[in-house]
């Protein structure tokens, strides 16, 4: 069963849940079931997710490594002390790890080859540094055997990548928002004055409509959790109990809230703002809002920063003043992802990229025209050579025809003369 030590090892399976609010009897609350196998773990989002899972699964099958894993704290894992235990695992496990590494190296090599070919076809420069970064989670200089260095690299890469995963998601969302605004502005430029005014009025109307929603409770506050308690769990809000609430939503019963379990608690609040059937609501923005809520609760409650909220951390948080009297929560429309200056810089960057693409396109067009010109020259030369060849052939045919027309007569005359002298005894 995946426990806290597994999470510390890779910080990536995120407690292996597909967490959703649990349906319960409205009059009874059952205690958590012990030793329940967790659901299949969610995708970490890392490009080496499958390799990571398979390595950990096979290491778990070794009794020595499993024992060390459960008895090693997070800092020792990060510092590579657990990786050294690889030397003591069974031969069967090591053999399987060797095979997994070879498969991963082959996968990455194929992926890089495809990227290089695609960039070459587009006339783009290959970013070798970025391509080599794909190999940071293993030692590709030794593609045949899985060594201590490979496990150490895998642990450190997964830890670092996941610690920066949310940051990268925020940056991707910011680019998404700026791209959306840029495309809207570019579209307005194609319209006449009347159509542009109507489009602007519609845009402002949609913004106002989206902002007109019920009050959003502060994520992780008593008011927010009570709504889940009442609406999702079907229990009396006046009988709200933090310990019972934790047991209900710790869906795998391991004594921790992971990130997915926490994010599932915010669905009710998000539904107040976002509806997939409404034109004014963007589901990409909803997921960003969910991420912001989860990060906020983690920052307030996860005191040991292990990306898990333990039962004790949760109960302690419910006794704070902030839990009972939270500040207001600003949604995305109240807290924009970018400034006007950032948007201008982004648009300038897009303009430079477009200019660069146009230059490359012009260069390719010139190269094509030059190749076509050279092909025309080759075709002309080929025609000239063919004409010369035909002339030479005609010449030789004429000579040969002339010889054929004269040679048989000379031969006949000579033969008759020889016959005459022979018959006369000469």
UniProtKB/TrEMBL annotation:
Gene3D superfamilies in the cross-refs: EF-hand
Subcellular location: Cytoplasm; Golgi apparatus; Membrane; Secreted
Transmembrane segment boundaries: 388-407
Signal sequence region: 1-19
Coiled coil: 148-208, 354-391
Pfam families in alphabetical order: EF-hand_7 (PF13499), NUCB1_N (PF25434)
Gene Ontology CC: endoplasmic reticulum-Golgi intermediate compartment; extracellular exosome; Golgi apparatus; membrane
Bilayer topology annotation: Peripheral membrane protein
SUPFAM superfamilies referenced in this protein's UniProt entry, alphabetically: EF-hand
Protein name: Nucleobindin-2-like
């Amino acid at each position: 069963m995946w426990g806290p030590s597994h999470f510390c090892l890779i910080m990536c399976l995120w407690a292996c849940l597909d967490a959703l609010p649990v349906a319960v009897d409205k009059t009874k609350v059952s205690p958590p079931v012990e030793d329940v196998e967790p659901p299949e773990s969610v995708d970490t989002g890392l490009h080496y997710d499958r390799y990571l899972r398979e390595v950990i699964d096979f290491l778990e099958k070794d009794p020595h490594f499993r024992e060390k894993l459960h008895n090693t704290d997070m800092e020792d894992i990060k510092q590579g002390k657990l990786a050294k235990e690889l030397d003591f695992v069974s031969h069967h496990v090591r053999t399987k790890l060797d095979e997994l590494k070879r498969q991963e190296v082959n996968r990455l090599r194929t992926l890089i080859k495809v990227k290089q070919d695609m960039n070459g076809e587009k006339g783009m420069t290959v970013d070798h540094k970025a391509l080599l970064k794909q190999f940071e989670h293993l030692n590709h200089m030794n593609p045949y055997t899985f060594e201590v260095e490979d496990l150490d690299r895998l642990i450190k890469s997964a830890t670092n990548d996941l610690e920066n995963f949310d940051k990268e998601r925020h940056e991707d969302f910011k680019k998404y928002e700026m791209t959306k605004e840029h495309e809207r502005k570019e579209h307005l430029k194609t319209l006449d004055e009347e159509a542009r005014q109507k489009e602007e009025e519609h845009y402002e109307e949609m913004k106002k409509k989206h902002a007109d929603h019920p009050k959003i409770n502060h994520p992780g506050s008593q008011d927010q959790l009570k709504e889940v308690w009442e609406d999702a769990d079907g229990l009396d809000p006046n009988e709200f109990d933090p310990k019972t609430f934790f047991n209900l939503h710790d869906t795998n019963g391991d004594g921790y809230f992971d990130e997915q379990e926490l994010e599932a608690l915010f669905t009710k609040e998000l539904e107040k703002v976002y509806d997939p059937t409404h034109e004014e609501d963007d589901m990409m923005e909803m997921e960003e809002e969910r991420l912001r809520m989860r990060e906020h609760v983690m920052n307030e409650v996860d005191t040991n920063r292990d990306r898990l909220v333990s039962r004790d951390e949760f109960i302690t948080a419910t006794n704070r003043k902030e839990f009972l009297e939270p500040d207001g929560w600003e949604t995305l429309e109240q807290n924009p992802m970018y400034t006007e200056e950032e948007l201008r810089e982004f648009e300038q960057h897009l303009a430079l990229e477009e200019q660069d693409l146009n230059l490359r396109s012009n260069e390719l067009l010139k190269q094509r025209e030059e190749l076509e010109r050279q092909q025309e020259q080759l075709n002309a030369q080929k025609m000239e050579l063919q004409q010369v060849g035909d002339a030479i052939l005609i010449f030789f045919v004429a000579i040969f025809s002339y010889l054929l027309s004269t040679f048989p007569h000379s031969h006949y005359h000579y033969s008759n003369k020889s016959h005459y002298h022979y018959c006369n005894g000469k």
